[in-house]
Amino acid sequence: MSFLVGARFDISVICYGFLPVVLFCLIALFIPRRFNDSFSSFFAKFIKYYLLLLLISFLSFIIIDYFFYLFFQSHINILFFGVFDDDTVAVLNSVWEDYPIGKIVLTYLIVIAGLLYTAHLVSNSSTKPIQLRSKTLVLILILFFPLFFVGMRGSTGTFTLRREHTNITDNEFVNSLCYNALYSLKFANSERRDNQIIPDIPRELEIMGYENWNQACNAYREGEGKLFDNSLHSNTRFNTYLQQNPPNVIFVQMESMSTHYFDMNSKELNLLGDLVDELPNLYYFKNSLSSFNGTIQTLENFLVGTPKTIISQSMYFDTPFSSAITLPFKKKGYDAYFLTGANISWRNIDKMLQQQGFDYIEGRNHLLNIYPDAEEFAWGVHDGYLMDYIMTKLNENSGKPKFIFGLTISNHTPFEVPSSYESYPIMMPDSLKVQIRVDEEIAYANFYSHQYGASMLAKLIKMVRESPYGENTIIAASGDHNIRQVFEYTDEEGFLKRSVPILFYIPEKYKPKYVDVERLSSHKDIFPTLFNLSLSDASYTYTGDDLFSDASQYHFAVNDYGFIADSIGAIAYHNNQPYYYTWTQAFSKRKLKVDNINSPHAKYMLEKLRSYTTIRVLQVYKDINAYQERKEQISSVPQTL
After folding, report:
1. CB neighbours (10 Å) of residue 100?
2. Tens-digit pLDDT profile for residues 339-360
3. Residue 473, beta-bridge partner list
4. Cα-flanking dihedrals φ and ψ of residue 12, to 5°?
5. Please, what's the b/e burial string for 246-255 (b: 16 or more CB within 10 A of its CB; e: otherwise)?
């Protein structure tokens, strides 16, 4: 079935490609007879070069889509456009390191040469101009035209081929066989267009199926009590000790830190390095999901809790969001730091950060001034120097508690470990070698890179824990997304595919009374947890739940606002259609099995995801609209000397 549907998509692309040729034939029917020979000669040359260009274009996109799938386990999707929006030089450097570019280019050139040679043979075989006005051709065109346009549509029904036509089974991989590189690009562009930031609240309510803001809020809170008020505000509990002893708070967004790698870690397959020794000192939530599957999207979601990205590269980059994570800390007298080894202008993020309440925003260039001999790679200064600098900032006596947001980069392609790092040996067992989908060399490079990143996080935790600040500094860390390059994930491993660890170091005097590290969680819950751990009677914008509280009755994790999981199962959207899964083992949140999407619990989860997404989008849009109105008011005021 998948091959039959795939043939429809392929025929559609081919017909679209041949559309100019068919139109030329149609025009030829109306060319005066005296111009027939000259037009036929021009037509023959046009076909030769146009079809050659078409074949080269098709071949290029097929190759791009193939290697994109190798890396992301998906056809070309919205992340494809990040090649142009991201640090393009660094991206290309990663491609150069990770793929056999020489062999790819050589194969590509050989195929192109073959196409050129074939075109040359076809050209030389023509003994006379094509008779475009012949009765036979006219008859063929009359009979062929209806079939041609059916081929373009790919369907004789009401709708042309759409993404929904690929949903032929419950298996995501089989469905992915149905469409080709060109349609992948078309779908990705549609996804990009649908994800555009258009702060039209009535339009968003209509799309999501709610009449107003309150209806969406009530739908989310149903059966949960008062999680937040109608302005989406929550409050931390009053705590006399926190009032008098506000702790420092450090959060580290770890590049590609993976729960799967935590699960696989062993003495022989050492993927955690020094972090193994620190884990007994940490709370480790292992049933957790990343907010998105890309770094910038996850970063923005942490910063302001937005389903709509990428804000930093949109016209709304300068919007000060009421949901900014710095604000609860700033209102309690904290200094706020954003520190990274990356270029601070990456993705225009510095301009966005300046509007979110950070007092200090420092990146690669600043670290190089402090550490002139720091080792770098394509994306910036390695993580070890960032951890040292975070400790330096912690040691500075400003008279205020500190909130520090750290962004790491080292565990990113091209996977490189600084020469100064003494790695632990890694030996891949034969049973694992058959599971990887890349060359062993790339897999080992990634394993060592993950080990290095984990060890550097352990370095920071240990430095803080063994210092005087160990008694009054809370540290949290999580991966920005799982790494998908090395392993193939089935639909049944959909949760593991999206899973990242959430880690907390909490000093004795700040430790919570209630702990359940087995509960489902995701990035939406991290900062509500940190606010409740560190701030007394503080107001914050609701994005999720306090992981150390039993107040909420329903716990769920969400990824990419299209995948939701709870203690019973999960729902994943594939090609705009939801699929429902339940856990094969209640005690282990690793394997799923397909279940009935029409079950009452599946419908409950769909409503939870829909309402949650709606209130988060509307909150972001409210802030954007309010700021745009303020700017318009300011610009309308006459300027006086």
Report:
1. 10
2. 999 999 898 899 999 999 999 9
3. 248
4. -60, -45
5. bbbbbbbbbb
Tokens standing for 318? Answer: 């300068």
> What is the helix (H) or strand (E) element at residue 511, kind and residue range?
none
Q: For residue 302, which of 358, 341, 246 has the smallest C-alpha distance?
A: 358
Q: Is 230 exposed, middle or buried (0-12, 13-18, 19+ CB in 10 A)?
A: exposed
For residue 573, list its beta bridge partners. 578
Q: What is the DSSP letter of 472?
A: S
Q: What is the rounded CA–CA span in Å between residue 609 and residue 380?
A: 37
What strand order describes the sheet that includes 588-594?
A: 557-559, 563-565, 569-574, 577-585, 588-594
Compute the average pLDDT of residues 436-454. 95
Instruction: At 440, give phi and psi (nearest 5°).
Output: -55, -35
Residue 486 burial by Cβ neighbours in a 10 Å radius (0-12, 13-18, 19+)? buried
Amino acid (1-letter code) at residue 354: Q
pLDDT score for 416: 93
DSSP letters spanning 101-116: HHHHHHHHHHHHHHHH
Long-range Cβ pairs for the range 266-270 (8 Å, 24+): 268/426, 268/427, 268/429, 269/426, 269/427, 269/428, 269/429, 269/432, 269/447, 270/424, 270/425, 270/426, 270/451
In which band, very low, low, confident or very high, does the pLDDT at 128 lie, cut at 50, 70 and 90? very low
Rounded percentage of the chain residues whose pLDDT exceeds 90: 61
| 213-221 helix and 201-208 helix, angle to the nearest 10 degrees | 40
Residue 437: DSSP 8-state? S
Is a pLDDT exceeding 50 seen at residue 129? Answer: no
What is the dihedral sign for C-alpha 466, 467, 471, 474? negative
Q: What is the pTM of this model?
A: 0.80
Alpha-carbon distance of 556 to 609, in angstroms, equals 10
